Records
---
Amino acid sequence: MTPLIQFKNVSKSFGSLKVLDQINLEIEKERITAIIGKSGVGKSVLLKHMIGLLKPDDGTIHLDGMNISEISGKQAKKLRQKFSYMFQNMALFDSMTVFENIALPLQERQRLKKNSVKTRVMDIAQKLELEDICHKYPSQISGGMKKRVALARALITNPEIILFDEPTTGLDPIRKHAVFEMISHNQQLFKYTAVIVTHEIPDIFFIAHRVAFLDDAHILYHGPPDDIKTSTIPVVQRFIEPPYMGRRQ
Amino acid sequence: MAVKSFFQFLGYSFIKFIFELGHIAVFFTSSFVRLFKYPFQILKLIHQIYFIGVKSISVVCLTALFTGMVLGLQGYYTLVQFGSEGLLGSAVALSLIRELGPVLTAIMIIGRAGSSMAAEMGIMRISDQIDALTTMDIHPKRFLISPKIGASLVCFPLLTAIFDVVGICGGYLSGVILLGINPALYIKGMEYNVVMNDVTGGFIKSVVFAVIVSTICLYQGYYTHHRADGFGAKGVSLSTTAAVVISCVTVLIADYVLTSFLL
């Protein structure tokens, strides 16, 4: 399988704190890759490098074979149009309504006519059960609803690559499964490449084709989700099988 | 040793200051240029003109009225000692048109709109809204900064003009109506002593202040995350304070520099 995004010896520090240390990672095209790991180990930092929000201190990141730190502004713009990013804290524009939030990439990036924008927004709003709150502002809706609005905004442009930063945190189990199901279903339908940062174990193993485990600034495991269960690395084992599991039996 | 470290500190601070100035200049230029890039953001520009300009009219009028009245009062009691109370109209008009109009209008807008622009940018920064624009391939400076700079360039001179007119009326109120100066003297004095250069100078100042205020306030908010002395809500609060203080001080310094060139 062709790697779409390649990290080659990428390092990143914030002050004296080394978050990524000589990271090598390959994200396969048209596949779902999950990045898992403890809180605060730098999973979101890894994700932000993929879209160019953060630049590595050392090493290179290749997208479609191109080194993204060496490409021209026009090429970077072209590449960025392939991406969508769903932020961990949603990053919804609080001075815009839900409808305007979802419609923004269509209006600004694709410059569609009002009617087609409305049709597409209402279509995705219906799929994500957001039709009734389209006129509301983000401050007037619940955390779970905000998640779905952010998800709708990420999916609306039918991007080739979608980066999800904890898309299900704060959702109830039914909606959590619905979100994962939708990501998986749409991925099969539109063949986009998805990178999901998550803590949802074992749910993510059912939809991910590859799993990368990040800990202590290194990728400790990268491979199919089935194989991670047989990993002998203690920290990986502890993460995927928490100690309380099985105590009740 | 102490002397060496003092000069090291001085040098470091100076280099940092120059670097910051360059950064601010690039920030303004890149945002201003994007104002003329297609698709034009006419609606956003109008919205910002409403926010910065229309909503500031009442506070500007109120400040102007009382400033003019105080000038009339103080001017009268000073001029009457020399038997020159007939010059009150020109004294009030020249003070307002040349100095107080542009400076006080700028300070009023800093308090009302500048602080709010800095806080808005800061909150958008810490809640990843600016990064979200980047990921959507929407240039944040074009989308957020350019309309505000454009609106400031439109609103500052207009509000200054309003300030001047209302201030002159305030001077008339205290000088003519309350203290009994001949109204013809007040008006004719203005007519004879105020020349077009005074008016042009005042407007040049207001345009320069528009650039200074909008750039500093937006810059402080936009780069809230670069602050070393505070993160999150504290960072936003520090950025807003810095925006107001730096803008006010810079306006006063720029006023002196411009006056020395314009006189």
---
Amino acid sequence: MYKKITIMTLFMLSLALVLSMPFAAHALDFKKERLANGLTLIHVERHELPIVMATLLIKASPLQEDGTKAGTAYLTAKMLSEGTAKRKSADISEQIEFMGASLDTSVNDDYTTVSLAVLKKDVETGFDLFSDIVLHPAFSMEELTRRKTLLAGSLKKRQEEPSFIAGRELIKNLFGDFSYGRAVEGSIESIEKISRLDIINFYDANYRPDNAILVVVGDLGKDELAQLMTRFFSPWQAAKKQTVQQKPVQAKLTAYNQPRIEVIDKDVSQANIVMGRMGISRDNPDYYAVQVMNYIFGGGGFASRLMKTVRDEMGLTYSINSFFASTLYPGRFEIDVQTKNESADLVIKETLKQVRKMRTDGVTDGELADAKDYMIGSFLRRIETSKKIVDFMAAVEFYKLGGDYIERYREYISKVTKEDVSRMAKKYLSDEDLLIIVVGNKKKMKL
Amino acid sequence: MVHAIRRILLILVLIIPSYAFAGVQEFMLENGLKVIFIEDHKIPIANFQIWYKVGGIDEPAGKSGISHFLEHMMFKGTPNYGSKVFSNMIQKKGGMDNAFTTMDYTMYFQKLPSSEIQLSIDLESDRMKNLLLNQADLDAERSVVMEERRMRYEDDPKNILREEVAAAAIKVQAYRKPVIGWMEEIAAITRADMAEHYGIYYSPDNAFIIISGDVNPAELMPVIRKKFGVIPPAGAKIKRLKTVEPPQRGERIVYRDSETAEVPSIVIAYHVPRFPDKDSNALDILSSILSGGKSSRLYKRLVYEKRIALSVNADYEGINRDPYLFSVEATAAPGKDIKDVEKELLDEIAAISAQPPTKEEVQKAKNQVESGFVFARDSSFAEALYTGMFEIIGGWKLRDLYLEGIRKVTPEEVSDVARRYLTRENRTTGYLVPKKAGK
């Protein structure tokens, strides 16, 4: 009892110190090491709650797959939990769910993650299952067939979503055959072509300890984690095959000289509009200035210009926003908005007007200050929970943002000037090469 | 969204008692405003939530959606702070804010660096009393709400089906209409309607505040007293419409044609009691056994083994002001007959009605609730949210009762509630019919 109080007091004291310092100084204490098998391990101890979160990031994505068999990376990840050398698919879900734990996989344009969330008392069983699905997946023919059928069905269902159709059309036009030009799930046609051997080859080439980052956050001490690693992850060795990475194609920077509009007819009540052009990669030196610029333009929620004009003043939409998908290779800039069919034309005109205004007039001192205050002040929310910390740390390591990223973020944002923002708007917000995809009711839209 | 909330709820509710109210403190102002603190000092962030006991359930006939519409108008300023600056002011401090409306309540929240939490007190106390409700803003915002309805309902086949099923299953009680309201009624709401609704329900004695995260109640309470304490209570002005749904005496069937749906879906809904009725906990466990994860009965049967459905879900929301529905829904796999999907759903319901689930199945469901509760504590926002959901139905300490109840559920009780409530005469079945398929 006494001991508990002392620990509590010390904890409060350290917090009081942190509080008195500026925000960005709330550093995250982590340890990083490279294990004998080449796996990068990052550990953050958090003992307030009896939970453990682990995310394994594997540098495997559509970037490494054969484009004619799009969906290979996605299916490989989804197949991990569908059976291993010693466990059936049903045994894995039964064991995980009985503990009230979760074990999920996900794939984006740049990488795959396998994430475990488990109570401290079940951490051994959790790590056993976690390592088993990563190290010994069976990729059985029966399970693969089942998964492919289910995936094809979901893709068919997604055709119901006008925003899905519009987004798919946009990236196809921007990136062509490069992997960023297609959905990570692939298409109904492409997944049909994926064989068991394709999955096994993809797995062997990419699922390697020296090609992965493991982040563990939660109620585990250093020694406890070391024991778990020795027992469950030290047997992981790379297969002989090497990773083959697709060379990124030259981004299409077609100058249309005026915005190009493509209309896809669908009997819906709202026109779903996406506009886009090429953006930047995560390691582009313009990244932070671009983020500030985009916050003011369309990324800042209710504080953004697009939201203030198109929603608040004109009442034309429930939501409008813009973002730069800043990936390993240059990604896209995109604006998303929906409005009733009849006002599609008006929304497009107003949005383009805002693009031009941003390019010609720049931003005010007030807008710049607000944007920077938000970005610096909100940073802590990105590492607010253990769940957020595991994913954040994995991404920081993958994109090589540096061990001092949290400390330096304030500086990155602080030094962005009004001139920088203007320059970014001119460089990345052209309306002349904007591609506009509209999915809506052709008869009702005046386009 | 609603489903996600329910899942977390199930989980959350069970955990809080394990820290035995140690972190929770409650204060009552003279004007009837309750303030609840949940301290959590892991990180210097604080959540401010203000809950108004007004939602779809409190709306006059012909004014469906007025509570939600008013929620939108709450961001349109006061004489002290102009129109549309609310979120700007919060974001400037590194915070984020939003609000949502349910059938039972309207909740506004901000998440801020804990050193900035006084801003929430300033802004929320101001808009509880001084809302502008100016006509031009009202007109523009009406269009926004209509766009929201188009996005969330008209163009989302599954949601539109759920809306049809609720309207068919419930004849009298207010849960029959959607929270966002019917399009025609949203169009007809006037400024006077809105001012009246605001005047009745936005008062300290019809609200409570929950502050969670890195905060000190002793520091904040004087400020809260000063800002909120001066707002007069509404007292007897607060109206509660009491409606009682008559028992259903036969299956109801509703079809909804869809221009855009690619595959058919089905929703089957049954009238059930709400928490803390004695059957409520068993209904929660039942929904978890039927569809809690890939190892659940319906997923295994329809998606994994028979491969006739793309997805399947059972949903029970018991934490409500009035009794609502237990629903089971599924989306057919391409080329599969929705009638076969329906048959499998009903067969599984018949099976669990006839034969109690195994002890392991019940234990798994309980474990999911318990662990979910622990995981939810990772987020101070979620802790506050679930505390508030119990406060709405009578008091946050009901969480304890809920936990005790869940722990006591037996396999026989699960089977028993399935047998008594999931019956043919108590069900409403809705079919989503894709027009493309010609059928």
